[in-house]
Amino acid sequence: MKAGIVGVTGYSGIELLRLLQFHPYINVHSVYSSSQVGMKLSEVYPQISSLANYSLESIDIPKIANEVDVVFIATPSGVSSTLIPELISQDVKIVDLSGDYRLGDPAIFEKWYNHPGPRQEDLEKATYGLSEWNREDIKNSSFISNPGCYPTATLLGLAPLVINKKIDVSSIVIDAKSGISGAGKSPSKTTHYAETNENFSIYKVNRHQHIPEIEQVLKVWDETIPYVTFSTHLVPMTRGIMSTIYINSISDSITFESLYELYSTSYEDSPFVRIRDKGNFPSTKEVYGTNYCDIGLAFDERTKRITVVSVIDNLVKGAAGQAIQNANLMFGWPEDTGLQMVPVFP
Ligand SMILES: NC(=O)C1=CN([C@@H]2O[C@H](COP(=O)(O)OP(=O)(O)OC[C@H]3O[C@@H](n4cnc5c(N)ncnc54)[C@H](OP(=O)(O)O)[C@@H]3O)[C@@H](O)[C@H]2O)C=CC1
Ligand SMILES: CC(=O)N[C@@H](CCC(=O)OP(=O)(O)O)C(=O)O
Question: What is the SS3 assignment for 190?
């Protein structure tokens, strides 16, 4: 299959190109840019000069649809909703890495993203691509809205408890931390080296755009879920997300062993979700450069509170890796095709 990447000069786009080098059935045919048309991609990223000699092409929808079988769109929010209305009518599979098509209601989108959302009629054609929990719909879809990085780590961490109704639904607190590459490659005041190095900061308190995304999915799993508390922090590292989740249990019979059994069973057919043994908690480096989501669990007998620790690489399972996992599902291949990496460590 031939793939195209829109936004290849960004962090998720270049990660897509890197990961697809390992894919046996997908060949990156063309790469597209809005601002550097005609340049060689190796002029932007000399580290890929040994790969095929890609030139950055303009974003011309009929041409894209004509030359590739699947197009990955890795552009800032607000861009894909200008491309999708035309692209969607063409015979090409689409994976959108941005947040544009994740929320089902354009009014909610506008409230949290602070700019107008996509058309309702196009939103209805998008399938939310949380691979592990939406496989059948993804297999039958040709337009995937890839989840956000924080929602991926958080929802994989919460799913077994929420779906199996093991918790006090009003008690969910999510404390999430991200490396700086989560903010993309354009520098800003908050991602400036002097602001992030040897610093640890909280941001977008109670107004992060991933709050409605997380709540929307949780409500599909359990309609009684009200709101969640979700906070995000910047950590002075390049990649990685750790989502630490605190929840009150509703059952006195919960033990670490019962939690471990629940999670292991829930993810027994999910090659990328790995559950840690008792007392063993994952760190972000242990999934670095891979599509894994590693989950650690604890139960506090005194407070009856459950702690879930979920880590991913934001650019892989949180973006490019999950996008390829979803393309694999759409094409009917095993979902780990081309994604069997070993973490870069240390
Ligand atoms: N970074 C991460 O960890 C994650 C990011 N995402 C989402 O994926 C998307 C890409 O993120 P990321 O790679 O970090 O972003 P970057 O800012 O690193 O790159 C985005 C790229 O989009 C292109 N672009 C910018 N403006 C436009 C435009 N108006 N029209 C077309 N292309 C444009 C640019 O390339 P050029 O100038 O060459 O066109 C740019 O290199 C975002 O929506 C982000 O929210 C999702 C999950 C995780
Ligand atoms: C560290 C950092 O800044 N991370 C970004 C997450 C980017 C992302 O995945 O957001 P989308 O929903 O727009 O795709 C943020 O918190 O906004």
Answer: coil
Quote the domain boundaries for residue 185: 150-313
What is the best residue among 178, 186, 202 to mutate for testing ligand 2's pocket, by most ligand atoms within 8 Å of CB? Answer: 178
Phi/psi zone of residue 304: left (φ > 0), alpha (ψ -120 to 50 degrees), beta? left
Q: 28 and 121 in one domain? A: yes
d(CA 249, CA 113): 33
For residue 223, tell me if it sits in a domain: yes
- Give the model's pLDDT for residue 231: 98
181 pLDDT more than 90: yes
CB burial class (10 A; 0-12, 13-18, 19+) of residue 303? exposed
Cβ of residue 98 lying under 6 Å from some atom of ligand 2: yes
pLDDT for the residue 232 = 98
Distance 11 CA to ligand 1 centre (A): 7
Chain mean pLDDT for the chain: 97
The structure's pTM equals 0.98
Residue 211 counted as domain residue: yes
- Reply yes or no on whether the pLDDT at 252 is more than 90: no
CATH number for the domain harbouring residue 231: 3.30.360.10
Q: Cα of 65 to ligand 1 centre, how many Å?
A: 20
Question: pLDDT tens digits, residue range 133-167?
Answer: 999 999 999 999 999 999 999 999 999 999 999 89
Residue at 91 is within a domain: yes
Choosing from 16, 48, 149, 218, the catalytic residue is: 149
ipTM above 0.90, yes or no: yes
Q: How many domains does the chain have?
A: 2
CATH code, domain carrying 100: 3.40.50.720
- Residue 339, in any domain of the structure: no
Q: Are 93 and 191 members of one domain?
A: no
Annotated catalytic, 293?
no
For ligand 2, atom 8, the nearest C-alpha belongs to: 148
Beta strand spans in 192-266 (E): 201-203, 229-234, 241-248
Question: Within a 10 A sphere around the Cβ of 169, how many other Cβ atoms?
Answer: 20
